[in-house]
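Duplicate of #3305? Posting structure anyway:
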C-alpha cells in the first residue's frame, strides 16, 4: 500500500450486533496487521476501535438498533490515521455525550489521565454496563484531541460522529 496517497483504507457500513462486532474486529485486526507497520500505532488504533465499536454496540437504544447503520472508516492522510465512527442517537441523549466530550476536549495528556483516574475511582455502573470511561479511554489512548459533531436527522434522532487521529 502506498501510504503517500490520501485515501480511505477501510470502511464498514452496516448494522451492529455482538456477532457482527466480533467479525468486524477480526477484519480490522487483519487490515492493521497488513497495513500499519508501526506496532505502537497499530495497537493504539485497535484499542480505540474496540472501545468505540463496543460503545456503539452496547449503548445504542433498542428502538434505534434496527435502523442504526453504523459507519466506521480508517483513512490515512498527511501522515495521520483518521478513524471515524458514526451512529444514531436520540437527540435528547446528545447533551449527556456532549457534556462528557466537553470535559475531555482540549485537555493535556496528564489532565486526561487524571480525569480517567478520578472517573474510575468514583465510577457508578450504569444500567447499560458503562461507567463513563469509554470516551475518556479513547482520548487517553489516542493522545490527540477527539473531534465530534451531532447532525440532526429529524426532531428526535441525531447522527453522532466521532473522529480520532493518530499521528505517525
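Output from current build:
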Amino acid at each position: 500500500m502506498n501510504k503517500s496517497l490520501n485515501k480511505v483504507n477501510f470502511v464498514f457500513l452496516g448494522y451492529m450486533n455482538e456477532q457482527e462486532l466480533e467479525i468486524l474486529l477480526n477484519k480490522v485486526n487483519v487490515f492493521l496487521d497488513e497495513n500499519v507497520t508501526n506496532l505502537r500505532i497499530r495497537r493504539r488504533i485497535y484499542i480505540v476501535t474496540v472501545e468505540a465499536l463496543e460503545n456503539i454496540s452496547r449503548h445504542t437504544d433498542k428502538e434505534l438498533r434496527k435502523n442504526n447503520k453504523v459507519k466506521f472508516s480508517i483513512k490515512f492522510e498527511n501522515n495521520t490515521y483518521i478513524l471515524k465512527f458514526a451512529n444514531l442517537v436520540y437527540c435528547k441523549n446528545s447533551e449527556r455525550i456532549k457534556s462528557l466530550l466537553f470535559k475531555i476536549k482540549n485537555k493535556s495528556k496528564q489532565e486526561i489521565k487524571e480525569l480517567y483516574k478520578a472517573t474510575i475511582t468514583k465510577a457508578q455502573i450504569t444500567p447499560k454496563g458503562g461507567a463513563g470511561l469509554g470516551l475518556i479511554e479513547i482520548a487517553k489512548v489516542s493522545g490527540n484531541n477527539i473531534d465530534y459533531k451531532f447532525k440532526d436527522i429529524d426532531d428526535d434522532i441525531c447522527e453522532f460522529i466521532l473522529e480520532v487521529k493518530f499521528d505517525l
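Confirmed duplicate; merging threads. The CA atoms of residues 1 and 76 lie 11 Å apart. The chain has a mean pLDDT of 86.
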